[in-house]
Design brief:
It is a single chain. This protein is of the alpha/beta class. It has a single domain (7-276), classed as Aldolase class I (TIM Barrel, Alpha-Beta Barrel). Helices cover 47% and strands 15% of the residues. The chain is built from 11 helices and 8 strands. It has helices at 7-16, 28-41, 51-54, 59-70, 87-95, 110-126, 160-167, 191-200, 215-224, 233-247, 254-276; strands spanning 20-24, 45-50, 77-84, 100-103, 130-135, 171-174, 205-207, 226-231. An 8-stranded parallel β-barrel has the order 1-2-3-4-5-6-7-8, surrounded by 9 helices. β4, α6 (110-126) and β5 form a beta-alpha-beta unit. α2 (28-41) packs parallel to α4 (59-70) and α10 runs antiparallel to α11 (254-276). The radius of gyration is 18 Å and the shape is globular. The chain starts with 6 loop residues before the first helix and ends in a 6-residue tail after the last helix. Bound molecules: 1,3-dihydroxyacetonephosphate. 1,3-dihydroxyacetonephosphate binds next to β3 and β8.
């Protein structure tokens, strides 16, 4: 049984200078693709359920499915709420058996973000669940040329110590030129900012918005102090491409078409475990 809170694995990653990935899954085929890759590569893994999908009626059942499949392997697997939209949503996920939650108060004023994160931390820690919060705001890649490239939303290094101490948070997502979805223009990461934040706090640091970054950028971000990397959009796009290709054949069955989801996850995850240095860590 290896459904675990990811805290120990992220601490190991911090000291070993590699990164544990979070992959968002939406249904069973994607989970099976991650399972193929993590059992082959023996890499600790976080399965993310993205907040809007955590609000759907089937989330409790999907969480149970992920937990059951994690128990079928001896590789550590965490189930984490990704971008928790409210304190209440985070608390609800505790009752669904999530092992970790992210509360995303990054669009709120600092003191409100701190107060809400603190409430989540108090409840989660009582249940043995670890918490990620976001300071600064990681925006969307389609606005990247007007926002990310101008440093808007970047994490203020001066406020990180106060934020971590006041909230008691376990992991911190930071903004330093990373963005969700496809980047408009070339992504530029401020690695000096990552290194400065790394020096100021001891908690593992998280990079959202893995899609669109090069292998060199991943390695440089990890060397600067990133220990967890969230990656989603490219996997979903590859799955959609695979399904379109399969569906173009008139004789394609439902099974042929949705096999494209599993293949996309197993290929991307297997590759990223190697790039992030997570392969073989179990
Ligand atoms: P991408 O979709 O850009 O890879 O980012 C995923 C993410 O950060 C999920 O939290």
């Amino acid at each position: 049984m290896t459904i675990i809170s990811i805290k120990n694995e992220l601490t190991k990653a911090l000291h070993g200078r590699y990164a544990v990935p979070l992959f968002d899954v939406f249904e069973m085929q994607g989970m099976e693709g991650v399972m193929d890759a993590l059992t082959e590569k023996r890499a600790p893994t976080i399965i993310g359920i993205y907040s809007p999908y955590a609000a759907l009626p089937n989330c409790r059942a999907l969480a149970a499915y992920v937990r059951c499949r994690a128990e079928d392997t001896d590789v550590p697997v965490s189930l984490m709420l990704d971008h928790g939209a409210s304190v209440d949503q985070c608390l609800e996920m505790l009752s669904y058996g999530f092992t970790d939650v992210m509360y995303d108060g990054s669009s709120l004023p600092l003191e409100e973000n701190i107060a809400n994160t603190r409430r989540v931390v108090d409840a989660a820690h009582a249940a043995g669940v670890s918490v990620e919060a976001e300071l600064g705001h990681v925006g969307m890649g389609d606005q990247y040329d007007s926002l990310g490239s101008r440093g808007l939303g970047f994490t203020d290094p001066v406020s990180v110590e106060h934020f971590v101490e006041a909230t008691g948070v376990d992991f911190l997502a930071i903004a330093f030129g990373n963005a969700h979805g496809l980047y408009k223009g070339e992504p530029h990461l401020d690695l000096k900012l990552v290194a400065e934040i790394r020096r100021r706090v001891n908690v593992p640091l998280v990079m959202h918005g893995g899609t669109g970054l090069s292998d060199e950028q991943f390695r440089a971000a990890i060397a600067a102090g990133i220990s967890k990397i969230n990656f989603a959009t490219s996997i979903m796009n590859t799955a959609a491409d695979n399904m379109r290709l399969a569906a173009a054949k008139p004789e394609a069955s439902m099974f042929d078409i949705y096999a494209g989801i599993r293949a996309a996850y197993s290929q991307w995850c297997g590759r990223l475990y190697e790039v992030f240095g997570a392969a073989g860590r179990v």
